Amino acid sequence: MFFENKLKNILVTGPLAVDKAVYSSHYDPQNTRIRSVLEGIQNYVSIPAKVDFSFGCEVVDEVWPEGKIILFPLTRDEKNGIDVACTKAKKSELISTVMGEDGQHCGESRSRTNLGLLGSQFQLLQVLKRDRQTNHSNSNQQKTIINWENQYIQAILEAWSPNVEGSNAISKTILGDYNPGGKLPITFPRSVGLLELNFSYKPSSQLGQPSSEPNGTGKTSVVGELYPFGYGLSYTQFEYQNLNIFPETGRTQQQVQVSIEAINAGKVKRDAVVQLYFNDLVSSVNVYQLQLSRFECITLDRGRD
């Protein structure tokens, strides 16, 4: 394994690390054998690495649903659970948090006033960030607001509802045996005030406020997406060069051919999702800012392909 030889102690924490009910919905096949993320990592990691577990906190706090709009002090049980996780984190080289939403608080007829982590999960994540290398597996069924996580957590793995093989995929990705190549099929906004921020949007929908001039109001607006449609990272780096467009100047309804050279500039083999977008600089109607024309998944060894 890519990382395991460097690890002696791994901590898995968070309520969804053991809650199997969140891994599938009532739309999925029933009576399937689902393995939790904790079980997946325990079964995947070999000696001498040790996998420890701490529940940390419940999905929601004791004052739910008022806790959605008011930040209440932690209860004694919540504080004790976070303290235990923090103590174990100090002894671990890798901390894997598994948090997000469960089926009782996300879905049809379960609207929310915010899209951040529920209950005291956010406080748990903040405490764990202080210790060693922390990665965060986000299990949810909708786009979420994860600005703080994006700023301070070393790695974020969007697991959605991971289903039967999800724990195996998460384990392999966390430990470096699988190099992720997926891209987002949705747009993640920076705040609920930006909803509905979907791909693709019109240019005027994301205008900011001027920061100067007589009518300037300063940089007070939060605009734009946190993660755009088509975004996704990998354990390797891809470079694109030698873009060719033929013909460079076309006519209405004329076919245009586009080619590009893709390079795996990293150290490991991986799939690259090459995406082609276009926009109209001049048009008779208000068009989308970007439109996806084509995409293709290709496997690239190190070097040129």
Automatic annotation (TrEMBL):
GO terms for molecular function: hydrolase activity. InterPro entries: BXL (IPR044993), Glyco_hydro_3_C (IPR002772), Glyco_hydro_3_C_sf (IPR036881), Ig-like_fold (IPR013783). Keywords: Hydrolase. Pfam families: Glyco_hydro_3_C. It comes from the Bacteria. Residues 4-235 form the Glycoside hydrolase family 3 C-terminal domain. This is Glycoside hydrolase family 3 C-terminal domain-containing protein. It comes from Flagellimonas marina.
